[in-house]
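Hello K.,

You asked for the raw outputs rather than the summary table, so here they are, unedited. I folded two proteins back to back in the same session to keep the settings identical. This is the first:
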Amino acid sequence: MSARDCFVSVVAPLREDGAILSAFVDETAAVLKASFANHELVLVDDGSQDDTPERVGALLERHPCLRYIRLSRSFGTEAAIASGLDSTIGDFVVVMTPDTDPPDLIPEMVDLARSGIGTVYGVRLDRRGDPFWLRAGAAAFYFLCARLLGVRLPKNSTHFRVLSRKTVNAVTRIKDRNRYLRVLTASVGYSARAVPYQPLARHGRPRHKTFRESLGLAVNLVVTQSTHPLRLVSWLGLGASLVNLVYLLYVGAVYLLKSKVAEGWTTLSLQVGGMFFLVFLILSVMAEYLGRLMEETGERPLYHVQEERSSNVLLADPERRNVVAESEAAPPSRLEKAG
Protein backbone atom coordinates (compact mmCIF):
# COMPACT_ATOMS: atom_id res chain seq x y z
CA MET A 1 0.00 0.00 0.00
CA SER A 2 1.50 3.33 -1.10
CA ALA A 3 1.63 6.41 1.08
CA ARG A 4 -1.12 8.06 -0.94
CA ASP A 5 -3.44 5.04 -0.69
CA CYS A 6 -3.28 4.65 3.10
CA PHE A 7 -6.24 6.00 5.07
CA VAL A 8 -5.28 8.89 7.33
CA SER A 9 -7.56 10.25 10.05
CA VAL A 10 -6.90 13.55 11.80
CA VAL A 11 -8.37 14.23 15.25
CA ALA A 12 -8.43 17.86 16.38
CA PRO A 13 -9.88 18.77 19.80
CA LEU A 14 -11.57 22.17 19.86
CA ARG A 15 -12.06 24.52 22.79
CA GLU A 16 -13.17 28.09 22.01
CA ASP A 17 -11.40 27.88 18.63
CA GLY A 18 -14.08 29.46 16.46
CA ALA A 19 -11.88 32.39 15.46
CA ILE A 20 -9.18 30.16 13.95
CA LEU A 21 -11.29 27.19 12.89
CA SER A 22 -11.81 28.11 9.24
CA ALA A 23 -8.11 28.76 8.58
CA PHE A 24 -7.11 25.55 10.34
CA VAL A 25 -9.62 23.36 8.47
CA ASP A 26 -8.81 24.94 5.07
CA GLU A 27 -5.09 24.40 5.56
CA THR A 28 -5.39 20.87 6.94
CA ALA A 29 -7.91 19.76 4.32
CA ALA A 30 -5.64 21.03 1.53
CA VAL A 31 -2.67 19.04 2.90
CA LEU A 32 -4.76 15.86 3.29
CA LYS A 33 -6.27 16.16 -0.19
CA ALA A 34 -2.86 16.68 -1.80
CA SER A 35 -1.16 13.83 0.07
CA PHE A 36 -3.74 11.08 0.69
CA ALA A 37 -6.52 9.67 -1.48
CA ASN A 38 -8.40 8.44 1.61
CA HIS A 39 -8.65 10.71 4.62
CA GLU A 40 -10.95 12.27 7.19
CA LEU A 41 -10.72 15.26 9.52
CA VAL A 42 -12.53 14.76 12.83
CA LEU A 43 -13.25 17.92 14.84
CA VAL A 44 -14.13 17.21 18.48
CA ASP A 45 -15.76 20.16 20.24
CA ASP A 46 -15.03 19.99 23.98
CA GLY A 47 -18.05 22.05 25.04
CA SER A 48 -17.04 25.33 23.37
CA GLN A 49 -19.14 28.33 24.38
CA ASP A 50 -18.18 30.52 21.40
CA ASP A 51 -19.49 30.34 17.81
CA THR A 52 -17.65 27.10 16.96
CA PRO A 53 -20.85 25.07 16.20
CA GLU A 54 -22.13 27.75 13.82
CA ARG A 55 -18.81 28.00 11.98
CA VAL A 56 -18.65 24.22 11.57
CA GLY A 57 -21.89 24.22 9.58
CA ALA A 58 -20.36 26.25 6.76
CA LEU A 59 -17.20 24.14 6.79
CA LEU A 60 -19.18 20.90 6.42
CA GLU A 61 -20.75 22.27 3.25
CA ARG A 62 -17.39 23.35 1.85
CA HIS A 63 -15.17 20.36 2.70
CA PRO A 64 -15.72 16.63 2.10
CA CYS A 65 -14.38 14.04 4.54
CA LEU A 66 -15.05 16.33 7.50
CA ARG A 67 -16.76 15.17 10.70
CA TYR A 68 -17.85 17.15 13.74
CA ILE A 69 -18.40 15.63 17.18
CA ARG A 70 -19.78 17.91 19.85
CA LEU A 71 -19.53 16.76 23.46
CA SER A 72 -22.37 17.59 25.82
CA ARG A 73 -20.05 19.68 28.02
CA SER A 74 -16.36 20.23 28.58
CA PHE A 75 -14.75 16.93 29.61
CA GLY A 76 -11.18 18.10 29.02
CA THR A 77 -8.77 17.82 26.10
CA GLU A 78 -7.80 14.23 26.88
CA ALA A 79 -11.41 13.02 26.88
CA ALA A 80 -12.06 14.94 23.65
CA ILE A 81 -9.09 13.21 22.01
CA ALA A 82 -10.34 9.85 23.33
CA SER A 83 -13.75 10.39 21.72
CA GLY A 84 -12.05 11.15 18.42
CA LEU A 85 -9.81 8.09 18.61
CA ASP A 86 -12.83 5.92 19.40
CA SER A 87 -14.49 6.94 16.13
CA THR A 88 -11.60 7.08 13.65
CA ILE A 89 -11.26 4.60 10.80
CA GLY A 90 -7.79 5.46 9.53
CA ASP A 91 -4.78 3.21 9.13
CA PHE A 92 -2.88 6.07 10.76
CA VAL A 93 -4.36 8.65 13.11
CA VAL A 94 -2.97 12.15 13.52
CA VAL A 95 -3.71 14.01 16.76
CA MET A 96 -3.13 17.75 16.53
CA THR A 97 -4.06 20.99 18.29
CA PRO A 98 -5.52 23.61 15.91
CA ASP A 99 -3.82 26.53 17.65
CA THR A 100 -0.24 25.26 17.62
CA ASP A 101 0.36 22.34 15.24
CA PRO A 102 1.37 22.85 11.56
CA PRO A 103 -0.53 20.63 9.07
CA ASP A 104 2.41 20.73 6.63
CA LEU A 105 4.22 18.18 8.83
CA ILE A 106 1.50 15.54 8.51
CA PRO A 107 2.83 13.81 5.34
CA GLU A 108 6.37 13.58 6.77
CA MET A 109 5.13 12.14 10.06
CA VAL A 110 2.83 9.64 8.34
CA ASP A 111 5.71 8.47 6.14
CA LEU A 112 7.74 7.76 9.29
CA ALA A 113 4.81 5.88 10.83
CA ARG A 114 4.45 3.78 7.67
CA SER A 115 7.99 2.48 8.17
CA GLY A 116 6.73 0.49 11.17
CA ILE A 117 6.98 3.06 13.94
CA GLY A 118 4.12 2.90 16.45
CA THR A 119 4.11 6.58 17.40
CA VAL A 120 5.65 9.58 15.67
CA TYR A 121 5.46 12.52 18.05
CA GLY A 122 6.20 16.21 17.80
CA VAL A 123 8.78 17.89 20.01
CA ARG A 124 8.74 21.65 20.37
CA LEU A 125 12.13 23.22 19.73
CA ASP A 126 12.05 25.41 22.82
CA ARG A 127 9.76 26.68 25.58
CA ARG A 128 10.07 30.37 24.81
CA GLY A 129 7.16 32.31 26.21
CA ASP A 130 6.40 29.82 28.96
CA PRO A 131 6.40 31.24 32.51
CA PHE A 132 9.16 30.06 34.82
CA TRP A 133 6.82 27.98 36.99
CA LEU A 134 5.60 26.08 33.91
CA ARG A 135 9.14 25.28 32.71
CA ALA A 136 10.15 24.14 36.20
CA GLY A 137 6.95 22.14 36.58
CA ALA A 138 7.48 20.44 33.21
CA ALA A 139 10.98 19.36 34.24
CA ALA A 140 9.63 17.96 37.52
CA PHE A 141 6.82 16.21 35.66
CA TYR A 142 9.20 14.42 33.29
CA PHE A 143 11.30 13.36 36.29
CA LEU A 144 8.27 11.98 38.13
CA CYS A 145 7.08 10.08 35.06
CA ALA A 146 10.47 8.39 34.77
CA ARG A 147 10.94 7.62 38.47
CA LEU A 148 7.36 6.93 39.61
CA LEU A 149 5.53 5.77 36.50
CA GLY A 150 8.43 3.99 34.78
CA VAL A 151 7.64 5.96 31.60
CA ARG A 152 10.35 8.10 30.05
CA LEU A 153 8.56 10.92 28.28
CA PRO A 154 10.66 12.84 25.75
CA LYS A 155 11.31 16.37 26.93
CA ASN A 156 9.05 19.01 25.37
CA SER A 157 6.92 16.44 23.52
CA THR A 158 3.45 17.65 22.51
CA HIS A 159 0.05 16.23 21.65
CA PHE A 160 0.98 16.47 17.94
CA ARG A 161 1.58 12.87 16.88
CA VAL A 162 0.78 10.13 14.39
CA LEU A 163 -0.41 6.81 15.80
CA SER A 164 -0.39 3.53 13.92
CA ARG A 165 -3.62 1.54 14.02
CA LYS A 166 -1.96 -0.89 16.44
CA THR A 167 -1.18 1.99 18.81
CA VAL A 168 -4.69 3.41 18.49
CA ASN A 169 -6.21 0.02 19.31
CA ALA A 170 -3.98 -0.29 22.37
CA VAL A 171 -4.69 3.23 23.64
CA THR A 172 -8.46 3.07 23.17
CA ARG A 173 -8.61 -0.07 25.31
CA ILE A 174 -7.36 1.97 28.27
CA LYS A 175 -10.42 3.52 29.91
CA ASP A 176 -8.78 5.46 32.76
CA ARG A 177 -10.70 8.62 33.55
CA ASN A 178 -7.46 10.47 34.26
CA ARG A 179 -5.87 10.16 30.84
CA TYR A 180 -2.79 11.73 29.35
CA LEU A 181 -2.11 10.83 25.72
CA ARG A 182 1.64 11.31 25.98
CA VAL A 183 1.83 8.87 28.90
CA LEU A 184 -0.56 6.36 27.30
CA THR A 185 1.29 6.19 23.97
CA ALA A 186 4.62 5.83 25.78
CA SER A 187 3.34 3.20 28.22
CA VAL A 188 2.05 0.78 25.54
CA GLY A 189 5.69 0.18 24.61
CA TYR A 190 5.62 0.42 20.80
CA SER A 191 8.47 2.07 18.92
CA ALA A 192 8.51 5.86 18.74
CA ARG A 193 10.28 8.58 16.75
CA ALA A 194 10.52 12.33 17.39
CA VAL A 195 9.97 15.13 14.89
CA PRO A 196 11.11 18.57 16.11
CA TYR A 197 9.04 21.60 15.09
CA GLN A 198 8.26 25.16 16.06
CA PRO A 199 4.66 25.48 17.32
CA LEU A 200 2.36 28.07 15.79
CA ALA A 201 0.23 30.57 17.70
CA ARG A 202 -2.93 31.04 15.66
CA HIS A 203 -4.64 32.73 18.61
CA GLY A 204 -1.83 35.26 18.80
CA ARG A 205 -0.20 33.90 21.94
CA PRO A 206 0.19 30.40 23.38
CA ARG A 207 -2.55 29.15 25.66
CA HIS A 208 -1.29 27.40 28.79
CA LYS A 209 -2.91 25.43 31.58
CA THR A 210 -3.23 27.32 34.84
CA PHE A 211 -1.02 26.39 37.78
CA ARG A 212 -3.97 24.67 39.43
CA GLU A 213 -4.80 22.65 36.31
CA SER A 214 -1.17 21.61 35.83
CA LEU A 215 -0.77 20.57 39.47
CA GLY A 216 -4.05 18.66 39.42
CA LEU A 217 -3.01 16.80 36.27
CA ALA A 218 0.34 15.82 37.80
CA VAL A 219 -1.28 14.61 41.04
CA ASN A 220 -3.93 12.63 39.16
CA LEU A 221 -1.37 10.89 36.99
CA VAL A 222 0.94 9.98 39.85
CA VAL A 223 -1.90 8.69 42.03
CA THR A 224 -3.77 6.75 39.35
CA GLN A 225 -0.77 5.34 37.50
CA SER A 226 1.63 4.46 40.34
CA THR A 227 1.65 2.91 43.80
CA HIS A 228 4.99 4.53 44.71
CA PRO A 229 3.50 7.28 46.93
CA LEU A 230 1.49 4.70 48.86
CA ARG A 231 4.57 2.53 49.28
CA LEU A 232 6.56 5.57 50.42
CA VAL A 233 4.00 6.25 53.15
CA SER A 234 4.09 2.56 54.09
CA TRP A 235 7.87 2.73 54.54
CA LEU A 236 7.49 5.94 56.57
CA GLY A 237 4.96 4.20 58.78
CA LEU A 238 7.26 1.23 59.25
CA GLY A 239 10.19 3.51 60.05
CA ALA A 240 8.13 5.47 62.56
CA SER A 241 7.03 2.21 64.19
CA LEU A 242 10.65 1.12 64.57
CA VAL A 243 11.55 4.50 66.09
CA ASN A 244 8.69 4.14 68.56
CA LEU A 245 9.89 0.61 69.40
CA VAL A 246 13.41 1.90 70.09
CA TYR A 247 11.96 4.68 72.19
CA LEU A 248 9.92 2.20 74.21
CA LEU A 249 13.03 0.09 74.81
CA TYR A 250 14.84 3.24 75.91
CA VAL A 251 12.06 4.17 78.32
CA GLY A 252 12.11 0.62 79.73
CA ALA A 253 15.88 0.76 80.19
CA VAL A 254 15.67 4.14 81.95
CA TYR A 255 12.92 2.83 84.20
CA LEU A 256 14.98 -0.25 85.15
CA LEU A 257 18.36 1.47 85.53
CA LYS A 258 17.38 4.76 87.17
CA SER A 259 15.89 4.99 90.61
CA LYS A 260 13.99 8.19 89.92
CA VAL A 261 12.41 9.17 86.62
CA ALA A 262 11.07 12.66 85.97
CA GLU A 263 7.70 13.22 84.48
CA GLY A 264 8.14 13.07 80.70
CA TRP A 265 5.37 15.46 79.68
CA THR A 266 7.29 17.09 76.85
CA THR A 267 8.52 13.84 75.39
CA LEU A 268 5.07 12.30 75.68
CA SER A 269 3.46 15.30 74.00
CA LEU A 270 5.91 15.17 71.11
CA GLN A 271 5.36 11.46 70.72
CA VAL A 272 1.58 11.75 70.69
CA GLY A 273 1.69 14.71 68.32
CA GLY A 274 4.04 12.90 65.93
CA MET A 275 1.90 9.80 66.05
CA PHE A 276 -1.26 11.71 65.16
CA PHE A 277 0.56 13.54 62.36
CA LEU A 278 1.67 10.24 60.87
CA VAL A 279 -1.77 8.69 61.25
CA PHE A 280 -3.47 11.61 59.51
CA LEU A 281 -0.86 11.60 56.74
CA ILE A 282 -1.45 7.92 56.08
CA LEU A 283 -5.22 8.35 56.18
CA SER A 284 -5.10 11.28 53.76
CA VAL A 285 -3.02 9.34 51.23
CA MET A 286 -5.21 6.25 51.58
CA ALA A 287 -8.34 8.37 51.18
CA GLU A 288 -6.89 9.87 47.99
CA TYR A 289 -6.18 6.43 46.57
CA LEU A 290 -9.59 5.14 47.56
CA GLY A 291 -11.22 8.13 45.93
CA ARG A 292 -9.31 7.56 42.69
CA LEU A 293 -10.12 3.85 42.85
CA MET A 294 -13.83 4.58 43.15
CA GLU A 295 -13.57 7.02 40.27
CA GLU A 296 -11.78 4.56 38.03
CA THR A 297 -14.08 1.63 38.79
CA GLY A 298 -17.30 3.60 38.32
CA GLU A 299 -19.67 2.82 35.48
CA ARG A 300 -19.90 6.38 34.18
CA PRO A 301 -18.62 6.82 30.60
CA LEU A 302 -15.61 8.96 29.90
CA TYR A 303 -17.62 11.45 27.82
CA HIS A 304 -21.06 12.08 26.30
CA VAL A 305 -21.68 13.17 22.71
CA GLN A 306 -24.36 15.81 22.16
CA GLU A 307 -24.36 15.76 18.36
CA GLU A 308 -22.37 14.47 15.41
CA ARG A 309 -22.41 15.86 11.87
CA SER A 310 -20.52 14.79 8.75
CA SER A 311 -19.89 16.01 5.23
CA ASN A 312 -19.64 13.59 2.32
CA VAL A 313 -17.00 10.88 2.76
CA LEU A 314 -15.06 10.15 -0.42
CA LEU A 315 -13.12 6.90 -0.84
CA ALA A 316 -10.78 6.26 -3.73
CA ASP A 317 -11.85 2.61 -3.55
CA PRO A 318 -15.46 2.19 -2.27
CA GLU A 319 -14.76 -1.45 -1.40
CA ARG A 320 -11.72 -0.61 0.70
CA ARG A 321 -11.75 -1.00 4.46
CA ASN A 322 -9.23 -0.39 7.16
CA VAL A 323 -6.83 -3.00 5.82
CA VAL A 324 -3.49 -2.64 7.57
CA ALA A 325 -2.37 -6.04 8.82
CA GLU A 326 -2.02 -4.91 12.41
CA SER A 327 -5.71 -3.99 12.47
CA GLU A 328 -7.07 -7.43 11.58
CA ALA A 329 -7.49 -8.47 15.22
CA ALA A 330 -9.05 -5.16 16.19
CA PRO A 331 -12.77 -4.51 16.68
CA PRO A 332 -14.63 -3.66 13.42
CA SER A 333 -14.30 -0.06 12.29
CA ARG A 334 -17.15 2.34 11.70
CA LEU A 335 -17.11 1.59 7.96
CA GLU A 336 -17.19 -2.16 8.58
CA LYS A 337 -20.15 -1.75 10.91
CA ALA A 338 -21.95 0.40 8.36
CA GLY A 339 -21.18 -2.03 5.54
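The second followed immediately with the same parameters:
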Amino acid sequence: MHTTLISAPELQAQLQKEDRPLLFDCSFDLSDAHAGANQFQQGHIPGAVHADLDQSLSDKQHPDGLLAGRHPLPEKAAFVAWLTAAGLNDGQQVVVYDRQGANYCGRLWWMLKWCGVEAVAVLDGGLQAWQAAGYALESGAGRNTRSGATAPLVMRESLVPTLNTASIMAKLGDTRLTVIDARATPRFRGEIEPLDPVAGHIPGALNRPFAANMAPDGKFKSATQLRQEFETLLAGRDPASVVHHCGSGVSAIPNLLAMAVAGMGITALYPGSWSAWCNTPGTPRAKG
Protein backbone atom coordinates (compact mmCIF):
# COMPACT_ATOMS: atom_id res chain seq x y z
CA MET A 1 0.00 0.00 0.00
CA HIS A 2 1.26 3.47 -0.89
CA THR A 3 -0.01 6.26 1.36
CA THR A 4 2.15 9.33 0.63
CA LEU A 5 4.34 9.13 -2.49
CA ILE A 6 4.86 6.60 -5.27
CA SER A 7 7.65 6.72 -7.86
CA ALA A 8 7.09 6.35 -11.59
CA PRO A 9 8.76 2.88 -11.70
CA GLU A 10 6.68 1.74 -8.72
CA LEU A 11 3.52 2.94 -10.43
CA GLN A 12 4.45 1.22 -13.69
CA ALA A 13 4.89 -2.05 -11.80
CA GLN A 14 1.54 -1.60 -10.03
CA LEU A 15 -0.23 -1.04 -13.34
CA GLN A 16 0.87 -4.46 -14.57
CA LYS A 17 -1.03 -6.19 -11.76
CA GLU A 18 -4.59 -7.45 -11.93
CA ASP A 19 -5.62 -5.22 -9.01
CA ARG A 20 -4.17 -2.12 -10.64
CA PRO A 21 -4.60 1.28 -8.99
CA LEU A 22 -7.07 3.88 -10.19
CA LEU A 23 -5.32 6.96 -11.58
CA PHE A 24 -6.53 10.54 -11.41
CA ASP A 25 -4.96 13.36 -13.44
CA CYS A 26 -5.60 16.59 -11.51
CA SER A 27 -3.91 19.04 -13.87
CA PHE A 28 -5.36 22.54 -13.53
CA ASP A 29 -4.59 26.23 -13.98
CA LEU A 30 -6.16 28.90 -11.76
CA SER A 31 -5.87 31.46 -14.57
CA ASP A 32 -7.54 29.25 -17.19
CA ALA A 33 -10.34 26.96 -16.06
CA HIS A 34 -10.16 24.90 -19.26
CA ALA A 35 -6.39 24.36 -19.28
CA GLY A 36 -6.40 21.22 -17.15
CA ALA A 37 -8.93 19.41 -19.31
CA ASN A 38 -7.03 20.45 -22.43
CA GLN A 39 -3.74 19.20 -20.99
CA PHE A 40 -5.41 15.91 -20.07
CA GLN A 41 -6.70 15.43 -23.61
CA GLN A 42 -3.27 16.20 -25.07
CA GLY A 43 -1.67 13.46 -23.00
CA HIS A 44 -2.16 11.50 -19.78
CA ILE A 45 -1.11 8.23 -18.18
CA PRO A 46 -3.12 5.41 -19.79
CA GLY A 47 -6.33 4.69 -17.91
CA ALA A 48 -6.34 7.92 -15.92
CA VAL A 49 -9.52 9.84 -15.09
CA HIS A 50 -9.46 13.64 -15.13
CA ALA A 51 -10.32 15.28 -11.79
CA ASP A 52 -11.10 18.97 -12.26
CA LEU A 53 -10.50 21.22 -9.25
CA ASP A 54 -13.50 23.43 -9.95
CA GLN A 55 -15.93 20.79 -11.17
CA SER A 56 -15.14 17.67 -9.12
CA LEU A 57 -13.00 18.69 -6.14
CA SER A 58 -14.90 21.82 -5.08
CA ASP A 59 -18.48 22.98 -4.68
CA LYS A 60 -18.65 26.58 -5.87
CA GLN A 61 -22.35 26.69 -4.89
CA HIS A 62 -21.62 25.76 -1.27
CA PRO A 63 -24.16 27.38 1.07
CA ASP A 64 -21.39 28.88 3.21
CA GLY A 65 -20.32 30.96 0.22
CA LEU A 66 -17.30 33.17 0.77
CA LEU A 67 -16.88 31.95 4.33
CA ALA A 68 -15.94 28.54 2.91
CA GLY A 69 -13.25 30.07 0.69
CA ARG A 70 -12.72 30.18 -3.06
CA HIS A 71 -12.72 26.37 -3.36
CA PRO A 72 -15.31 25.11 -0.85
CA LEU A 73 -15.20 21.39 -0.21
CA PRO A 74 -18.12 19.41 -1.61
CA GLU A 75 -20.33 17.45 0.73
CA LYS A 76 -18.72 14.08 1.40
CA ALA A 77 -21.67 12.09 0.07
CA ALA A 78 -21.53 13.94 -3.26
CA PHE A 79 -17.79 13.45 -3.49
CA VAL A 80 -18.05 9.71 -2.77
CA ALA A 81 -20.77 9.43 -5.42
CA TRP A 82 -18.40 11.04 -7.94
CA LEU A 83 -15.60 8.63 -6.96
CA THR A 84 -17.97 5.68 -7.39
CA ALA A 85 -19.00 6.92 -10.85
CA ALA A 86 -15.30 7.28 -11.70
CA GLY A 87 -14.85 3.58 -10.92
CA LEU A 88 -13.16 3.60 -7.51
CA ASN A 89 -13.69 0.35 -5.63
CA ASP A 90 -13.46 0.06 -1.87
CA GLY A 91 -9.90 -0.85 -0.87
CA GLN A 92 -8.43 -0.03 -4.27
CA GLN A 93 -5.10 1.81 -4.43
CA VAL A 94 -5.41 5.34 -5.79
CA VAL A 95 -2.61 7.34 -7.42
CA VAL A 96 -3.02 11.05 -8.16
CA TYR A 97 -0.79 13.32 -10.22
CA ASP A 98 -0.62 16.62 -12.07
CA ARG A 99 1.82 18.73 -14.08
CA GLN A 100 2.06 21.54 -11.52
CA GLY A 101 4.35 20.31 -8.76
CA ALA A 102 1.65 18.45 -6.79
CA ASN A 103 -0.20 21.74 -6.34
CA TYR A 104 -3.55 20.32 -7.45
CA CYS A 105 -3.30 16.55 -7.06
CA GLY A 106 -2.54 17.07 -3.39
CA ARG A 107 -6.13 18.28 -3.02
CA LEU A 108 -7.51 14.91 -4.15
CA TRP A 109 -4.93 13.03 -2.02
CA TRP A 110 -6.18 14.97 1.02
CA MET A 111 -9.87 14.64 0.15
CA LEU A 112 -9.59 10.87 -0.10
CA LYS A 113 -7.92 10.79 3.32
CA TRP A 114 -10.76 13.05 4.51
CA CYS A 115 -13.16 10.27 3.49
CA GLY A 116 -11.10 7.62 5.29
CA VAL A 117 -9.15 6.25 2.29
CA GLU A 118 -5.65 5.28 3.38
CA ALA A 119 -4.34 3.79 0.11
CA VAL A 120 -3.82 7.00 -1.87
CA ALA A 121 -0.47 8.31 -3.06
CA VAL A 122 0.90 11.20 -5.10
CA LEU A 123 3.05 10.34 -8.12
CA ASP A 124 6.38 11.85 -7.13
CA GLY A 125 7.48 14.26 -9.83
CA GLY A 126 4.11 14.19 -11.56
CA LEU A 127 3.55 13.55 -15.23
CA GLN A 128 7.02 14.89 -15.98
CA ALA A 129 8.62 12.07 -13.95
CA TRP A 130 6.48 9.50 -15.75
CA GLN A 131 7.63 10.81 -19.13
CA ALA A 132 11.25 11.11 -18.04
CA ALA A 133 11.19 7.42 -17.12
CA GLY A 134 10.21 6.64 -20.71
CA TYR A 135 6.65 5.50 -20.07
CA ALA A 136 3.84 6.03 -22.56
CA LEU A 137 0.98 8.49 -22.58
CA GLU A 138 -2.40 8.30 -24.25
CA SER A 139 -4.39 11.20 -25.66
CA GLY A 140 -8.07 11.98 -25.97
CA ALA A 141 -10.89 12.32 -23.50
CA GLY A 142 -9.94 9.13 -21.66
CA ARG A 143 -12.36 7.33 -19.40
CA ASN A 144 -13.88 10.34 -17.69
CA THR A 145 -17.16 8.48 -17.38
CA ARG A 146 -17.16 4.84 -16.41
CA SER A 147 -19.76 2.22 -15.64
CA GLY A 148 -19.08 2.80 -11.96
CA ALA A 149 -17.47 0.76 -9.24
CA THR A 150 -18.32 -2.89 -8.65
CA ALA A 151 -17.59 -2.56 -4.91
CA PRO A 152 -18.31 1.10 -4.16
CA LEU A 153 -16.20 3.06 -1.71
CA VAL A 154 -17.31 2.94 1.90
CA MET A 155 -16.92 6.31 3.59
CA ARG A 156 -15.02 5.98 6.86
CA GLU A 157 -13.79 8.27 9.61
CA SER A 158 -11.52 11.04 8.39
CA LEU A 159 -7.78 10.40 8.56
CA VAL A 160 -6.94 14.11 8.42
CA PRO A 161 -7.70 16.79 11.02
CA THR A 162 -9.28 20.08 9.93
CA LEU A 163 -9.77 23.47 11.52
CA ASN A 164 -12.24 26.18 10.51
CA THR A 165 -12.07 29.95 10.89
CA ALA A 166 -13.73 30.00 14.31
CA SER A 167 -11.37 27.34 15.67
CA ILE A 168 -8.29 29.27 14.55
CA MET A 169 -9.69 32.54 15.89
CA ALA A 170 -10.22 30.91 19.28
CA LYS A 171 -6.63 29.64 19.37
CA LEU A 172 -4.73 32.65 18.01
CA GLY A 173 -1.76 33.37 20.25
CA ASP A 174 -1.94 29.92 21.86
CA THR A 175 1.33 27.99 21.76
CA ARG A 176 -0.70 24.91 20.81
CA LEU A 177 -1.45 26.47 17.40
CA THR A 178 1.16 26.96 14.68
CA VAL A 179 -0.15 28.31 11.38
CA ILE A 180 1.94 27.62 8.25
CA ASP A 181 1.02 29.66 5.16
CA ALA A 182 1.99 28.07 1.81
CA ARG A 183 1.50 31.15 -0.38
CA ALA A 184 4.34 32.92 -2.17
CA THR A 185 6.20 35.28 0.17
CA PRO A 186 5.05 38.55 -1.49
CA ARG A 187 1.42 37.48 -0.95
CA PHE A 188 2.17 36.41 2.62
CA ARG A 189 3.70 39.82 3.34
CA GLY A 190 0.70 41.58 1.85
CA GLU A 191 2.76 43.26 -0.89
CA ILE A 192 0.46 41.87 -3.59
CA GLU A 193 -2.87 40.03 -3.64
CA PRO A 194 -4.01 38.87 -7.08
CA LEU A 195 -6.94 36.67 -6.01
CA ASP A 196 -8.52 37.73 -2.72
CA PRO A 197 -10.04 41.09 -1.65
CA VAL A 198 -7.64 41.69 1.24
CA ALA A 199 -3.84 41.30 1.34
CA GLY A 200 -1.81 40.00 4.26
CA HIS A 201 -1.71 36.94 6.50
CA ILE A 202 -3.05 35.45 9.71
CA PRO A 203 -1.19 37.06 12.64
CA GLY A 204 1.63 34.87 13.90
CA ALA A 205 1.67 32.61 10.84
CA LEU A 206 4.89 31.17 9.46
CA ASN A 207 5.56 31.25 5.71
CA ARG A 208 6.71 28.24 3.68
CA PRO A 209 5.83 28.49 -0.03
CA PHE A 210 4.70 25.05 -1.18
CA ALA A 211 7.33 24.88 -3.94
CA ALA A 212 10.03 24.78 -1.24
CA ASN A 213 9.28 21.07 -0.82
CA MET A 214 10.53 20.20 -4.29
CA ALA A 215 14.03 19.31 -5.43
CA PRO A 216 15.35 20.66 -8.76
CA ASP A 217 14.11 17.51 -10.52
CA GLY A 218 10.51 18.30 -9.54
CA LYS A 219 10.27 15.49 -7.00
CA PHE A 220 9.85 15.92 -3.27
CA LYS A 221 13.06 16.45 -1.34
CA SER A 222 14.28 13.55 0.80
CA ALA A 223 12.51 12.81 4.06
CA THR A 224 15.65 13.79 5.97
CA GLN A 225 15.95 17.17 4.25
CA LEU A 226 12.25 17.92 4.63
CA ARG A 227 12.39 17.10 8.32
CA GLN A 228 15.40 19.37 8.84
CA GLU A 229 13.71 22.23 7.03
CA PHE A 230 10.43 21.92 8.91
CA GLU A 231 12.22 21.61 12.25
CA THR A 232 14.11 24.82 11.43
CA LEU A 233 10.86 26.57 10.50
CA LEU A 234 9.05 25.36 13.62
CA ALA A 235 11.95 26.33 15.89
CA GLY A 236 10.93 24.01 18.71
CA ARG A 237 7.17 24.17 18.16
CA ASP A 238 5.32 20.87 18.34
CA PRO A 239 4.58 19.50 14.82
CA ALA A 240 1.21 18.35 16.16
CA SER A 241 0.27 22.02 16.66
CA VAL A 242 0.54 22.80 12.94
CA VAL A 243 -2.38 23.82 10.74
CA HIS A 244 -1.67 24.49 7.07
CA HIS A 245 -3.33 27.05 4.86
CA CYS A 246 -2.84 28.98 1.63
CA GLY A 247 -5.24 31.01 -0.52
CA SER A 248 -8.06 28.49 -0.83
CA GLY A 249 -6.92 25.27 0.84
CA VAL A 250 -5.28 23.73 -2.24
CA SER A 251 -1.58 24.64 -2.42
CA ALA A 252 -1.22 24.19 1.36
CA ILE A 253 -1.42 20.43 0.93
CA PRO A 254 2.10 19.90 -0.47
CA ASN A 255 3.37 21.25 2.87
CA LEU A 256 1.08 18.87 4.74
CA LEU A 257 2.20 15.96 2.55
CA ALA A 258 5.85 16.92 2.97
CA MET A 259 5.53 16.79 6.76
CA ALA A 260 4.00 13.32 6.43
CA VAL A 261 6.85 12.21 4.16
CA ALA A 262 9.28 13.60 6.75
CA GLY A 263 7.74 11.36 9.41
CA MET A 264 6.19 14.27 11.31
CA GLY A 265 2.63 12.95 11.20
CA ILE A 266 -0.54 14.02 9.41
CA THR A 267 -1.07 17.63 10.41
CA ALA A 268 -4.20 19.77 10.14
CA LEU A 269 -5.59 21.75 7.21
CA TYR A 270 -7.62 24.95 7.24
CA PRO A 271 -9.62 24.30 4.05
CA GLY A 272 -11.11 27.79 3.72
CA SER A 273 -7.66 29.36 4.12
CA TRP A 274 -6.97 33.05 3.47
CA SER A 275 -9.96 33.40 1.13
CA ALA A 276 -12.27 32.44 3.99
CA TRP A 277 -10.29 34.31 6.66
CA CYS A 278 -10.23 37.66 4.86
CA ASN A 279 -13.95 37.45 4.05
CA THR A 280 -14.94 36.76 7.67
CA PRO A 281 -15.81 39.94 9.60
CA GLY A 282 -13.71 40.50 12.69
CA THR A 283 -10.68 38.38 11.74
CA PRO A 284 -7.35 40.13 12.39
CA ARG A 285 -4.91 40.53 9.49
CA ALA A 286 -1.18 41.22 9.49
CA LYS A 287 1.32 42.43 6.90
CA GLY A 288 5.08 42.33 6.59
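The longest strand covers residues 22-25.

Happy to rerun anything if the numbers look odd on your end.

Regards,
P.
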